[in-house]
Write a structure and sequence with these properties.
The complex is a heterodimer. By secondary structure, chain A is of the alpha+beta class. Chain A has a domain at 8-61: Phenylacetic acid degradation B (Ubiquitin-like (UB roll), Roll). Chain A has helices at 32-43, 68-76, and strands at 8-14, 22-28, 51-56. In chain A, strands 2-1-3 form a three-stranded antiparallel sheet, covered by helices on one side. The termini of chain A are far apart. Chain B is an all-alpha fold. Chain B contains ten helices and no strands. In chain B, helix 1 (3-24) runs antiparallel to helix 2 (33-61) and helix 5 crosses helix 7 (151-164). Classes of the chains: A alpha+beta, B mainly alpha. At the A-B interface, helix 1 of A face helix 2 and helix 6 of B.
Chain lengths: 95, 250
């Protein structure tokens, strides 16, 4: 059996209310409906999720790894973008 | 003990047990990895249903037999499952068509059983119904996809429907067991369930561009323990360990 003609889908699962969908993996399916069904069986059988998104892998436009230098390195030298220079007043929790 | 309820629970439990076993035969042989996992999930759903239904049957019988004893230590003639569920898997098309014809029956049946005056049976139906809704969605989508797919898949799906159609009348088999339980409000009449089944089947089969066979010849017998030769082979595999090593656990 071959599934060479079935497109690849990226699967996103939301684990519980309030948290956003997270990429969990990919699978093959003939259409979106089947992709959701397959994702339910492959990725939520241990109660991992309450919502599923599927996106055709072809439709994901990704950054180019060879451009990583210009895209990401400039941020490395800008420590002031992290809010680490503030004193957290006493009594403030969850920071 | 309520003989009629025991008998009825065997029907429900044996249907789940045998179709669950059939689906488990696909483990490692699915057409694609995703579907292999899906069918194993289905098999586990059905074996879970069989466990709770047959355990309850054992309680109702009151002869110190639990679900395992009923599943593994009865003889062929004592099984009450439909002929449909014991039919061989053949190819994926036959397996999915068998599943669809069965799921389309199980959904309205469990819906009605949630209103049973027997609290335990109503609770089992409630839990099983959630699984069954998904089973029906899964098998309907496959029947539509295979029927309305390629020339080859259409041909095979039509063959599956033609082969299995003769076993569908038995879904609605009723006898004095049903009549007695219906009078007590424990189980529903199958007439409205048949109406819903016919509608589901017509809709899906039409969307799948398949043709419902016009041949009126039907076969039954499973509900009274008269099975096709297939059940013997299933039981040989299912029961081997308990027969060879009585009381064996792992």
């Amino acid at each position: 059996m071959s599934n060479a003609n079935w497109p690849l889908w990226e699967v996103f699962i939301r684990s519980k209310q309030g948290l956003s969908h997270k990429h969990v993996g990919s699978l093959r399916a003939a259409d979106a409906e089947m992709a959701v069904t397959n994702a339910r069986d492959v990725y939520t059988r241990r109660s991992e999720g309450i919502s599923i998104w599927v996106v055709k892998s072809n439709d994901v436009y990704a950054s180019d790894p060879s451009e990583a230098e210009e895209l990401f390195e400039p941020a490395d030298s800008k420590v002031y973008r992290h809010p680490t220079f503030y004193e957290v007043p006493e009594g403030i929790s969850h920071m | 003990m309520n003989n009629n309820l025991f008998e009825y629970l065997l029907r429900l439990g044996d249907d789940s047990l045998i179709i669950g076993h059939r689906l488990s035969e696909w483990c490692g042989h699915g057409p694609i990895l995703e579907e292999d996992i899906a069918m194993t999930n289905l098999a586990l759903d059905f074996i879970g249903q069989a466990t709770s239904i047959l355990n309850y049957a054992g309680q109702v019988e009151g002869k110190d037999r639990d679900g395992d004893a009923l599943a593994f230590l009865r003889y062929e003639r004592e099984y009450r499952n439909l002929l449909l569920v014991e039919q061989p898997n053949e190819d994926f098309g036959v397996t999915m068509m068998r599943q669809f014809l069965f799921d389309a029956f199980r959904k309205p049946l469990f819906e009605a059983l949630t209103k049973s005056t027997d609290k335990q049976l109503a609770a089992i139906a409630e839990k099983s119904l959630k699984e069954t809704r998904y089973h029906l969605k899964h098998s309907s989508e496959w029947v539509i996809r295979l029927g309305d797919g390629t020339e080859e898949s259409h041909k095979r799906a039509q063959y599956a429907l033609d082969t299995l159609w003769r076993y569908t009348d038995e879904l609605f088999f009723e006898n004095e067991v049903d009549q007695a339980l219906q009078a007590e409000g424990i189980v529903p009449s199958l007439a409205p369930i048949k109406k819903e089944w016919v509608k589901t089947v017509q809709d899906v089969i039409e969307e799948a561009t398949l043709t419902i066979p016009q041949n009126g010849w039907k076969q039954d017998g499973g509900r009274i323990g008269r099975h096709s030769e297939n059940l013997g082979y299933i039981l040989a595999e299912l029961q081997y360990m308990q027969r060879a090593y009585p009381g064996n656990k792992w």
